[in-house]
């Protein structure tokens, strides 16, 4: 049974399944789970609207007409998320018009650098330049204070490396390689062991 939904300027809608109708977003629509996230009618996001995504939770899919505007916001990282360079966040089976006007992230939960990419007016991707170790550690459930302290120190080291030329030194290149390996860990036990080792914790 079709049921259209309008999200007002002060409203928030969490989508964790199929919406059997049209969706107009003047507020905040959040892609909340890994389950099928579909708008089976039209999707319209106005300049006042914002689409919230959690990296690793999949893309919102529109089956009808779609028009984009307003903001795209990265609110967090799913537990167990494996870092990727490109992540789909929105799909329109019949294509879409418009583009998101802004890209933001929750600075209190993660450090994110990236850009929006539109492919064939059917899929919207986030191309990720940088996702900090603290966010990845938190997403993997690495919550011990000593381990998170290690993640914070490593992220500070990343920030220092970012200011250096890529050819600065062989040691900097080696550190970047090791940092990339840490960011690619997708197993909680391995991640906890890695950060605990960096913290000097004994087991």
Structure description:
The chain is of the alpha/beta class and 203 residues long. Helices cover 25% and strands 35% of the residues. The chain has four helices and 16 strands. It has helices spanning 133-139, 145-162, 170-183, 188-199; strands at residues 5-7, 12-15, 18-19, 23-25, 28-31, 38-39, 43-45, 50-55, 60-62, 66-68, 71-77, 86-92, 96-98, 102-105, 112-119, 123-131. The strands form three sheets. A six-stranded mixed β-sheet has the order 3-6-9-12-16-15. α1 (133-139) packs antiparallel against α2 (145-162) and α2 (145-162) crosses α4 (188-199). The radius of gyration is 19 Å and the shape is globular.
List the strand order in the largest sheet.
3-6-9-12-16-15
Mean pLDDT: 78
The poorly predicted ranges are: none
Class per helix and strand makeup: alpha/beta
Largest sheet: 6 strands, mixed
Distance between the termini: 57 Å
- Shape verdict: globular
Report the oligomer.
single chain
What is the radius of gyration? 19 Å
Task: Please estimate the helix content.
Answer: 25-40%
The number of E-state strands comes to 16
H-E order: EEEEEEEEEEEEEEEEHHHH
Number of helices: 4
The fraction of residues in strands falls at: 25-35%
Summed up:
It contains four helices and 16 strands.
Relevant terms:
single chain; 203 residues; alpha/beta; six-stranded mixed β-sheet; five-stranded parallel β-sheet; 25% helix; globular
Draw up the topology in text.
Layout: E1 5-7, E2 12-15, E3 18-19, E4 23-25, E5 28-31, E6 38-39, E7 43-45, E8 50-55, E9 60-62, E10 66-68, E11 71-77, E12 86-92, E13 96-98, E14 102-105, E15 112-119, E16 123-131, H1 133-139, H2 145-162, H3 170-183, H4 188-199
Parallel strand pairs: 1-4, 2-5, 3-6, 4-7, 5-8, 6-9, 7-10, 8-11, 9-12, 10-13, 11-14
Antiparallel strand pairs: 12-16, 15-16
């Amino acid at each position: 049974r079709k049921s259209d939904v309008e999200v007002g300027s002060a409203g928030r809608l969490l989508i964790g399944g199929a919406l059997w109708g049209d969706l107009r977003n003047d507020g905040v629509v959040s892609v909340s789970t890994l389950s099928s996230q579909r708008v089976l009618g039209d999707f319209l996001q106005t300049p006042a609207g914002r689409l919230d995504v959690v990296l690793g939770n999949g893309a919102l899919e529109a089956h009808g007409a779609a028009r984009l505007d307003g903001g795209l916001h990265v609110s967090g990282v799913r537990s167990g998320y494996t870092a990727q360079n490109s992540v789909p966040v929105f799909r329109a089976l019949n294509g879409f018009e418009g583009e998101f006007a802004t890209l933001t992230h929750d600075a209190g939960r993660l450090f994110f650098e990236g850009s929006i990419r539109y492919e064939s007016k059917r899929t919207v991707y986030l191309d990720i330049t940088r996702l900090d170790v603290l966010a990845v550690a938190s997403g993997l459930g690495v919550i011990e204070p000593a381990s998170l302290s290690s993640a914070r120190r490593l992220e500070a080291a990343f920030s220092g490396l970012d200011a250096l030329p890529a050819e600065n030194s062989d040691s900097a290149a080696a550190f970047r390689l090791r940092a990339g390996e840490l960011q690619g860990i997708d197993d909680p036990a391995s991640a906890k062991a890695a950060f605990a080792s960096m913290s000097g914790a004994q087991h």
